Amino acid sequence: MNRGFPTVGLLVAGALTAAAVTPALGAGDGPDRGAWAAPTERDAHWVSTWTSMPQLTEPGNMPPAPFTRDGSVMADTTLRQTVHVSTGGEHIRLRFSNAFGGTVLPITKVSVALPQDGRAGTGAVEAGTTRRVTFQGRPAVSVPAGAQAVSDPLDFRLAPGSDLTATVYLATGQASTAITSHPGSRTTSYLRAGDHVGDADLPGATPTDHWYFLSGVEVWSRSTTSATVVLGDSLTDGRGSTTNMNDRWPDRLNERLRGEPATANTAVVNQAAGGNRLLNDGLGPNGLARLDRDVLAQSGVDRLLVFEGVNDIGTAEASPAAQKQAAADVIAAYEQIITRAHTHGIRVYGATLTPFGGNTGYDDPDGYREEARQTVNSWIRTSGRFDSVLDFDRTARDPHAPRTLRPSMDTGDHLHLNPSGYRALADTVPARLFHRSPLPRGFGYN
């Protein structure tokens, strides 16, 4: 087997190259391969195994100097970043987003590899695992402003719950300071001048805790594998979690599901961003605006978890009329999300909003925002519109002071959870919700 950098399996003009190249896993190594599919299998499809919500990069989240200059970003720069996948497979492809780019995004080279020691946030890769990524058989791709690019399929064995390193080289950089990224990566990436796509390590590279351009990884899997998308804000994006430890609640949920045979083939992909709202743009486009891109256009999706709305309530005026309107608008947004997802055969699960009592920005002395939260949560629990309800409020609230978080789960800002709190949210989600079952009659009518 050739373990050199150039050898890949790829699709060119509709034909699959015969060469199969995989990282070094011996016979019998790794997880159960029951969901892994060959390229020629009829009963197989692409499934999203990792995603990050594309956002317009704010000034404070731009690549550090000297990789941001007047009117240009990452010229003659290698960018290396690691991602934590859900399900595995023997064939993968990558998605790169230029959704918010001010100009074309000219990517010169891309490679993938296994990170050194299987760790997230490292700048080194395992020797002999680096593989070139191509686009219609070519090493380079130009992504138009507002568009995305999907790579050719690549023979690359990826274990469930493992980490993947993607390395990108931009010879000329992007000729704009409007670029696409995901600031809340909670994972360290690396920047180094020059072309180092094939290097095993990046000594002297500049670290930055953001993802840029890369927005998805997909695996080719049998039809028994599917993806569950989580739509949310900073509580799902993982503020309060541990950098490079992948301990957000969707990560913990996926870890649980992988441990049970009936749910091991369920990917959980995170489409959340700090500050995101359902109704109005904030940090990233609003939830209703991004539903098509971040949920419906993802590969292999059959379930959606919605845990969002607290920022809509918290940023609305603390008056009776404004909060009554905020609660009604959040509920209307849920109705729209359910209707649109059901049309695509996607089950929708709703999570109640967790407490924010004592938070400086959101809690108000008259309790108008708390009343709106209670109104929304009551609707989630009793309307019957969601296909199932996840009572995160009940899990996270202090039983002695229900307007506040349990002290053991509170980061200290009385809004965000710590890793033990995120684990508790994940444990709240019943595994039975991910068992395979036919959709009920009339599903999608409303």
What does this structure look like?
The chain is an alpha+beta fold and 446 residues long. The chain is built from 8 helices and 27 strands. The strands form 8 sheets. It has a 6-stranded antiparallel sheet, with no helix packed on it. Strands 3, 8, 13, 14 and 20 form a 5-stranded antiparallel sheet that branches. A hairpin with a 2-residue loop joins β26 and β27. α3 packs parallel to α5 (320-343) and α5 (320-343) packs parallel to α6 (368-382). The termini are far apart.
**Percent range for helical residues?**
10-25%
Low-confidence stretches: 1-32
Structural class: alpha+beta
Average pLDDT works out at: 93
How would the global form be characterised? globular
Total strands: 27
How big is the Rg? 22 Å
Strands in their spatial order, largest beta sheet: 11-10-15-7-17-18
Distance between the termini: 54 Å
Main sheet characteristics: 6 strands, antiparallel
Query: What portion of the residues fall into strands of 2 or more residues?
Result: 25-35%
Tally of helical segments: 8
Quick overview of this protein structure:
Helices cover 19% and strands 28% of the residues. The chain contains eight helices and 27 strands. The chain has a six-stranded antiparallel β-sheet, with no helix packed on it.
Task: Present the secondary structure layout.
Layout: E1 11-12, E2 15-16, E3 44-51, E4 55-56, E5 68-69, E6 72-73, E7 77-84, E8 89-97, E9 105-107, E10 109-113, E11 131-133, E12 141-143, E13 148-150, E14 154-158, E15 163-170, E16 180-182, E17 189-193, E18 206-208, E19 211-212, E20 214-222, E21 226-232, H1 234-237, H2 249-258, E22 266-272, H3 287-296, E23 301-307, H4 310-315, H5 320-343, E24 347-351, H6 368-382, E25 388-390, H7 392-396, E26 397-398, E27 401-405, H8 419-428
Helix pairs in contact: 2-8, 3-5, 5-6
